[in-house]
């Protein structure tokens, strides 16, 4: 491991490894198209039903299938050629989106088709994600895994920031049919990246046949991998108590003013922070004490979350208020401050993710990497949903500033306590990675 002198993002994974570069470009275009469809499906569901509950059920209905897909897909990635598995799952994703576009063009789309195809799409994408993540070390080498993680973090931020907004604009301007069709076209780029990869069979002999026994074997490995397991626990803690997206619509209407525009700006601020932290992540890969990197970045994430909550408290107390605050009269000063704190939280979360993904991809043996990536995706999927429940309940019972302030303090304290007990994680050395 060498320490780079530049703070800017390390581009060597895409300048020195053409296979990864093609895959990364495919992820950018395909992921952008996927975000278009997610927003279009939500708008389409609301147009068909007029129900906020029906829209929320799109994510809820897919939760259990996505968990199953993460575990089962990760197991398959440790048994079969990962290139073929990713191609198969990507084909299912493409076909479900193409069917959605065909139904929209024919006028036959209804809420049941939207639910069913959204679940199929989410499950297939989960398998693609777990399989691609398991491929990364072979494509770029262990030294460039942190740089690859930073590039993927930047991609994720761009997709979240641009995709939903563009999807809303396209639906408003051209309708659902054309928006779904654009996703079908963009998703073809996934096949370019995957089709040109070499065969990528898992190394080792830990997995022999697919099935529940193989999944149990992966979970047994996790039970004996204290560093990976602690990273998962800390991530669930952070996402449960520090994921305020569920209250942002109400914040835009009731607390800071500006309505949907404020909600969109606040959501985009999180993605902007992730993008900026990736752009200036050049020296992260040279940090050997990754355990300390994980803990400190999560605690910074908690601090920014609490500061965001204090901004909402300031709004409730009438600080920096222009007078009446509503959709037409936003509190610009506090909106800017809230954006700064949410961007800081997004940046810290992304840095934590770079450390955790690097540890997962380098310290875990190749023949277990798919299953552990599957568990990781379950954590990433489940944490924000627990967070939505936490924020929704506390905001309803008390006030909108309470869950982020309390959550930020909980994150800082719980992570500190966990780290004190995590002897192995404190001693973790990136030059001698151990799970």
UniProtKB/TrEMBL annotation:
Residues 169-435 form the Major facilitator superfamily (MFS) profile domain. The chain crosses the membrane at residues 21-47, 53-73, 85-106, 151-174, 232-255, 261-280, 300-320, 332-351, 372-392, 398-419. The keyword Amino-acid biosynthesis does not apply. It is a multi-pass membrane protein. Keywords: Cell membrane, Membrane, Transmembrane, Transmembrane helix, Transport. It is found in: Cell inner membrane. It comes from the Bacteria. It holds the Pfam family MFS_3. This is MFS transporter. It comes from Microbacterium nanhaiense.
């Amino acid at each position: 491991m060498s320490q780079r002198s530049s703070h800017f993002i390390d581009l060597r994974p895409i300048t020195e490894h053409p296979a990864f570069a093609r895959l990364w470009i495919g992820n950018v275009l395909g992921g952008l198209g996927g975000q278009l469809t997610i927003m279009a499906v939500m708008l389409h569901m609301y147009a068909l039903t007029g129900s906020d509950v029906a829209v929320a059920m799109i994510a809820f209905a897919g939760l259990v299938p996505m968990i199953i897909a993460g575990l089962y897909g990760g197991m398959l990635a440790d048994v079969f050629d990962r290139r073929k598995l990713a191609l198969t799952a990507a084909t299912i994703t493409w076909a479900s989106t193409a069917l959605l576009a065909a139904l929209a063009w024919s006028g036959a789309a209804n809420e049941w088709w939207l639910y069913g195809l959204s679940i199929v799409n989410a499950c297939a994408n989960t398998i693609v994600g777990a399989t691609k993540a398991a491929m990364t070390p072979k494509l770029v080498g262990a030294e460039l895994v942190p740089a690859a993680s930073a590039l993927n973090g930047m991609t994720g931020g761009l997709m979240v920031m641009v995709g939903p907004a563009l999807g809303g604009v396209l639906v408003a301007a051209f309708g659902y049919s054309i928006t779904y069709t654009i996703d079908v076209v963009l998703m073809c780029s996934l096949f370019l990246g995957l089709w040109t990869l070499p065969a990528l069979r898992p190394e080792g002999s830990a997995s022999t046949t697919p099935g529940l026994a193989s999944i149990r074997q992966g979970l047994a490995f996790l039970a004996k991998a204290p560093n990976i397991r602690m990273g998962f626990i800390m991530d669930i803690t952070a996402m449960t108590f520090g994921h305020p997206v569920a209250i942002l619509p109400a914040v835009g209407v009731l607390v800071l003013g500006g309505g949907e525009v404020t909600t969109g700006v606040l959501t985009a601020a999180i993605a902007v922070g992730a993008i900026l932290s990736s752009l200036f992540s050049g020296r992260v890969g040279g940090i050997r004490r990754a355990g300390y990197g994980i803990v400190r970045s999560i605690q910074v994430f908690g601090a920014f979350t609490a500061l965001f909550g204090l901004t909402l408290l300031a709004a409730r107390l009438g600080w920096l208020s222009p007078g009446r605050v509503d959709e037409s009269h936003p509190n610009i000063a506090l909106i800017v401050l809230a954006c700064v704190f949410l961007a800081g939280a997004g940046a810290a979360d992304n840095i934590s993710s770079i450390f955790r993904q690097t540890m997962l991809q380098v310290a875990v043996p190749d023949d277990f990497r798919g299953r552990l990536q599957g568990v990781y995706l379950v954590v990433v999927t489940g944490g924000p949903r627990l967070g939505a429940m936490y924020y929704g309940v506390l905001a309803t019972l008390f006030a909108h500033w309470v869950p982020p302030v309390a959550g930020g303090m909980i994150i800082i304290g719980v992570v500190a306590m966990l780290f004190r007990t995590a002897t192995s994680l404190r001693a973790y050395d990136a030059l001698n990675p151990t799970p």
